[in-house]
């Protein structure tokens, strides 16, 4: 899934310092796949979802030039890969999008003999319904969509999605620019699934979502924390890492878990069909799954890390944080987004009309 921080241009020396400091805590032409590396790698990922220091380290270690391009939603990524003709060697796709891309024959199988560090990923994050044998995807980072409230302005916070429709929040909210997240939240408010396919229930959600519009001030999937930190918005519906970073910068902010259950996601590395540098892509994935490298990513982008071997390098500040690693009674109510087939057209229509 995802957030934007101030871009930093790091020298090789500074990159090495950052790699070293991760041990103390937290704070989407043909290349060769051998250890000697060489060639290029075209990476397509969510905005600000991988530290530049990690890219620099990979380039230096394997003599591979990384061309790095970003997107802001799964749907944007899908559309560009559909039209790319093998332009990208590796992308990051959320769980349901892996399923969609598999069905559209847009993915190459991952050679797991070349991604031996897959063993570092916890069993609960592997072999999930969207890719039962992890033939086409490798887990990267996970998280939820949570609500964040400035408790100085709104001391009561929120306990349910229905609270967000309260008129006291008029013009106060920053929300993800994400149709499945917003429509899904509305469906949960109504007592339905994030993955509802019943047309009458979706029509009900369409009407209900329109009622939320006066409360929304900003749509932002890249950096919703910015509006929360600077006070431009007092309520957020955003990714967990965004919530965590916002809380660190503004002590009036607090994360709440709606009682209906949260949108959970697992982002995964995938190799688009026709990738020209597939071996380099597999080399990159295996590199990212090294414990210290994975921990460095979590230091910069503190989502839930499925790499269990990396956790001893991440630090307790993150691992003990309930926003990033919620208690079981909270996470048991989570629901992952799934491919809803032809019903996607209804979701698209609802979203298009809502954003007009």
From TrEMBL:
**Where found, per UniProt?**
Periplasm
User: What Pfam families does the entry give?
Assistant: SBP_bac_8
Give the matching InterPro entries.
Answer: SBP, Sperm_putr-bd
Alphabetized UniProt keyword annotations? Periplasm, Signal, Transport
Record protein name field? Spermidine/putrescine ABC transporter substrate-binding protein
| Species assigned in the record | Clostridium neuense
């Amino acid at each position: 899934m995802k957030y934007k921080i101030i871009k930093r241009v790091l020298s090789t020396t500074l990159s090495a310092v950052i790699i070293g400091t991760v041990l103390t805590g937290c704070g989407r032409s043909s290349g060769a796949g051998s250890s000697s590396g060489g060639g290029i790698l075209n990476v397509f990922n969510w905005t600000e979802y991988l530290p530049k220091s990690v890219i620099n380290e990979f380039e230096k270690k394997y003599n591979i030039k990384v061309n790095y391009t970003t997107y802001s939603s799964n749907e944007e990524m899908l559309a560009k890969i559909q039209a790319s003709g093998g332009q990208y060697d590796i992308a990051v796709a959320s769980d349901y999008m892996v399923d969609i891309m598999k069905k559209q024959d847009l993915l190459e199988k991952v050679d797991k003999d070349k991604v031996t560090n897959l063993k570092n990923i916890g069993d609960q994050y592997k072999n999930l319904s969207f890719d039962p044998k992890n033939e086409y995807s490798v887990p990267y980072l996970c998280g939820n969509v949570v609500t964040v409230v400035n408790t100085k302005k709104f001391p009561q916070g929120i306990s349910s999605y229905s609270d967000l429709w309260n008129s006291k929040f008029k013009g106060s909210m920053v929300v993800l620019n994400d149709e499945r997240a917003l429509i899904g939240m509305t469906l949960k408010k109504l007592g339905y699934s994030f993955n509802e396919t019943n047309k009458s229930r979706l029509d009900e959600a369409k009407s209900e979502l329109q009622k939320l519009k006066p409360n929304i001030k900003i749509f932002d999937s890249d950096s919703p924390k910015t509006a929360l930190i600077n006070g431009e918005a007092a309520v957020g519906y955003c990714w967990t890492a965004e919530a965590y970073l916002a809380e660190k910068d503004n002590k009036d902010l607090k994360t709440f878990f709606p009682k209906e259950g949260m949108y959970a996601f697992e982002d995964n590395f995938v190799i688009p069909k026709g990738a020209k540098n597939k071996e380099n892509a597999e080399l990159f994935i295996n590199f990212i799954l090294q414990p210290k490298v994975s921990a460095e990513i979590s230091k910069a982008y503190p989502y839930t890390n499925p790499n269990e071997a990396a956790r001893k390098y991440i630090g307790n500040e993150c691992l003990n944080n309930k926003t990033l690693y919620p208690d079981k009674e909270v996470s048991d109510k989570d629901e992952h987004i799934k491919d809803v087939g032809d019903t996607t057209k209804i979701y698209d229509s609802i979203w298009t009309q809502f954003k007009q």
